[in-house]
Amino acid sequence: MDLILWRHAQAEEGTPDEARQLTPHGRKQAVRMGAWLDRCLPSGCKILCSPTVRTRQTVEALGRKFRLVDEIGPQASAADVLKAAGWPDARGPVLVVGHQPWLGQVAALLLTGKEQYWTVKKSNAWWIAQRDREDGNEVYLKAVLAPEFFTE
How many domains does the chain have? Predict the structure, then answer.
């Protein structure tokens, strides 16, 4: 299974938190990362999105169908996210669009076996993969990308 973690792009400050929108810079970030993801994700990739405005605006830049999942909102835990994504048994790749701190916690848990506070920067994508080996499953980091690596 492949699990792709995509943090929402830069958002405006303010309250309520759930209604914060992307800044003009954040919209550019989302478009750049969305274009790369669209080229690289298989057509059958399942896309899950936190219900906040900023995550919805981020994933809309991808231009694919997605599902809003209340369980992966800003207050989610790493366990909530992994359960929603079906890790490690989902049949295909899953893209999760969400928030800190749980994005970093999920990445740390999968890559080290311990939930830690790792930073996933705004609009960055972490692609974590799993493959079967003779001695068990192997989890590895396939890619970490930032939107500034891509031009519009």
Answer: 1
As a whole-number percent, the residues of the chain with pLDDT over 70 amount to 99
Residues 6+ apart with CB under 8 A from 80: 71, 72, 102
CATH of the domain at 96: 3.40.50.1240
Q: What is the pLDDT of residues 56-84, one digit of tens each?
A: 999 999 999 999 999 999 999 999 999 99
Q: Write down the pTM of the prediction.
A: 0.95
Domain containing residue 131: 2-149
Written as one string, the DSSP assignment of the chain is -EEEEEE---B---SSGGGPPBPHHHHHHHHHHHHHHHHHS-TT-EEEE-SSHHHHHHHHTTTS--EE-GGGSTT--HHHHHHHHTTTT-SS-EEEEE-TTHHHHHHHHHHHSS-------TT-EEEEEEEEETTEEEEEEEEEE-GGGS--
